[in-house]
Amino acid sequence: LYNGFIAAGIIWGVLYPDSDISLEILLFFTVCVSVAGIYGGLTAKRSILYIQGLPALIAVALLSQTIFQII
After folding, report:
1. Which residue range is the domain that position 12 belongs to?
2. Crossing angle, helix 19-43 and helix 54-70, to 10 degrees?
3. What domain count does the chain have?
């Protein structure tokens, strides 16, 4: 269920017609994935942090860089 909501949010962000708002939507949902990865890595299995959290944190960094270049 969680993955479906995240996927729907990311698809929404990709398809949203206004690129400024699209980036903010994508940033929100990738931060959600990052938080879930960090929490899972701390409470369940350490590998979740690297498999889910690290790629999401990289995506957050790249999206943030893109947003700040636009401003």
Report:
1. 2-70
2. 150
3. 1
The string of DSSP codes covering 2-49 is HHHHHHHHHHHHHH-S-HHHHHHHHHHHHHHHHHHHHHHHHHT-HHHI
Of the candidates 4, 13, 51, 6, which has an alpha carbon nearest to the alpha carbon of residue 33? 6
Q: Going residue by residue through the chain (71 aa), what tens digit of pLDDT does each one get?
A: 888 999 999 999 999 999 999 999 999 999 999 999 999 999 999 999 999 999 999 999 999 998 888 76
CA 71 to CA 34: how far, in whole Å? 24
Spatial distance between the Cα atoms of 48 and 41, rounded to a whole number of angstroms: 5
User: What distances in angstroms separate CA 29 from CA 13, 20, 54, 68, one per listed residue?
Assistant: 9, 15, 15, 18
Residue 71, Cβ density class (10 Å: 0-12 exposed, 13-18 middle, ≥19 buried):
exposed
